Amino acid sequence: MKGLANLALGNTDEARKNFEEALQLAPDFELAKQNLEDLDK
Q1: Domain parsing of the chain, residue ranges
Q2: DSSP for the chain?
Q3: Half-sphere exposure of residue 13, counting CA atoms within 13 Å on the CB side?
Q4: Residue 40 CB neighbours (<10 A)
Q5: CA angle 3, 24, 9 (to 5 degrees)
Q6: Burial class (CB in 10 A: 0-12, 13-18, 19+), 39
Q7: With 0-12 CB in 10 A as exposed, 13-18 as middle and 19+ as buried, what is 29?
Q8: What is the pLDDT along the chain (41 residues), one digit of tens a residue?
Q9: What is the value of pTM for the model shown?
């Protein structure tokens, strides 16, 4: 998943965008939800 790759590289803005796009395609995608919550901490 691109979001995880961007997160690992420290690209948090791009990772957030990737996770949000993933949730638009699959609203029940728990990993994307959790990663967005973690970015908001």
Answers
A1: 2-39
A2: -HHHHHHHTT-HHHHHHHHHHHHHH-TT-HHHHHHHHHHT-
A3: 0
A4: 7
A5: 10
A6: middle
A7: middle
A8: 899 999 999 999 999 999 999 999 999 999 999 999 999 99
A9: 0.91
Cβ pair 19, 36 in contact under 8 A: yes
The two tokens of residue 12 are 């948090």
Please state the length of the chain. 41
| Residue 30 in tokens | 């728990």
Where do we find the tokens 């990737």?
18
